[in-house]
Amino acid sequence: MSEKSVPKLQYTNEFKGEAIRLAETVGQHEAARRLGVPVATLGNWSRRSRGSEGGVETSSRDVSAVRVTRPISELEAENSRLRKELASAKLDIGPIKELIAVKIH
Predict the structure, then answer these.
(1) Contact status, residue 17 vs residue 24, Cβ threshold 8 Å
(2) What CATH topology corresponds to 7-69?
(3) Is the pLDDT of residue 66 over 60?
(4) Which residue in 6, 21, 32, 12 sits closest to 69, CA to CA?
(5) Is 1's pLDDT higher than 50?
(6) Which of 7, 64, 67, 75 is nearest to 35 (CA)?
(7) Mind telling me which InterPro entries this protein's record contains (predicted)?
């Protein structure tokens, strides 16, 4: 019986940096749950990031090379605004869909 191998997911450095910042604000377990990544993976990213700040040389693939410019709170505010905008757009489209359905029947 052969087992299927799980494909290795590759995350961008920007995603890793944002994930680390989120983990610093809400905790590693909650951040991992929200982002759908393993807690151990997030822990590895955080550890590598902290290690590089102490003067340890890092590779180009390392998280520490990323400098996140937008704070998590700003991203959460933008996400909230976009959700409201989407809800509003759905309300605008609803009556149009009803009109189309009535004309078809």
Answers:
(1) no
(2) Arc Repressor Mutant, subunit A (1.10.10)
(3) no
(4) 21
(5) no
(6) 75
(7) Homeodomain-like_sf (IPR009057), Transposase_8 (IPR002514)
